């Protein structure tokens, strides 16, 4: 179990909502090679108003309604910690309008410098049924250790999300328009 108090690298499956379901009128996003899809998101039972986070997705099939994806999930400043575990559903929003659902399959935490601080939180292993023959007690071979893939580091997204700026602490000001 990982508490989202800082940036997380996530991997899972995204399902884009159709226009009839209230999703994007133009259909699934089609990012090009140099740019990722960025939006806002939240994890239920939170809402877009009280649990908003930033999300950047990559490595998904452009134009596909359902596709594997990976990305970075960053909580908004001042939002309380949220649990992110394999099986969590992340609601992807554009503004406050839901446009997609990301089912989390792996979670990596980031250290303050942007490198992974902890290995991936794997999906729970399926429980094997007991052998039908009582004499068949050959132990199963040990599971191969998983080596976590380095976290996704898009130059602008990673720099923006892992650095602090004086404006982060400034009080909000009216636009004065």
Explain the overall architecture:
- The structure is a single chain.
- The protein has one helix and nine strands, in the order βββββββββα.
- The protein is mainly β and 177 residues long.
- Strands 2-5-4-3-7-8 form a six-stranded antiparallel β-barrel. The chain has a two-stranded antiparallel sheet with strand order 1-6.
- The longest helix has 8 residues.
What's the quaternary structure here?
A: single chain
**How large is the count of helical segments?**
1
Largest sheet: 6 strands, antiparallel, barrel
What's the N-to-C terminus distance? Answer: 45 Å
Average pLDDT figure: 73
Gross morphology: globular
| Rg (C-alpha, Å) | 19 Å
Strand order of the largest sheet: 2-5-4-3-7-8
How helix-rich are the residues, as a percent range? under 10%
Unreliable sequence segments: 120-130, 147-163
* Strand percent estimate: 25-35%
Secondary structural class: mainly beta
Topology:
Blueprint: E1 2-4, E2 8-16, E3 37-42, E4 53-58, E5 66-75, E6 82-84, E7 89-94, E8 97-110, E9 116-118, H1 155-162
Antiparallel strand pairs: 1-6, 2-5, 2-8, 3-4, 3-7, 4-5, 7-8, 8-9
Task: For the structure shown, list the relevant keywords.
177 residues; mainly beta; six-stranded antiparallel barrel; two-stranded antiparallel ribbon; 1 helix; 9 strands; 5% helix; globular
């Amino acid at each position: 179990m990982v508490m989202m108090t800082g940036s997380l690298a996530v991997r899972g499956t995204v399902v884009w909502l159709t226009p009839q379901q209230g999703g994007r009128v133009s259909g699934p996003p089609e990012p090009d090679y140099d740019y990722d899809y960025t939006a806002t998101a939240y994890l239920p039972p939170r809402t877009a108003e009280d649990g908003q986070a930033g999300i950047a997705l990559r490595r998904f099939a452009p134009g596909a309604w359902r596709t594997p994806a990976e990305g970075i999930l960053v909580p908004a400043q001042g939002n309380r910690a949220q649990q992110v575990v394999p099986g969590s559903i992340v609601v992807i929003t554009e503004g406050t309008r839901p446009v997609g659902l990301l089912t989390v399959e792996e979670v990596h935490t980031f250290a303050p410098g942007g490198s992974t601080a902890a290995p991936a939180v794997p999906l729970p292993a399926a429980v094997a049924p007991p052998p039908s023959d009582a004499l068949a007690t050959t132990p199963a071979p040990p599971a191969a250790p998983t080596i976590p893939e380095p976290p996704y580091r898009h130059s602008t997204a990673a720099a923006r999300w892992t650095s602090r700026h004086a404006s982060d602490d400034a009080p909000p000001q009216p636009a004065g328009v």
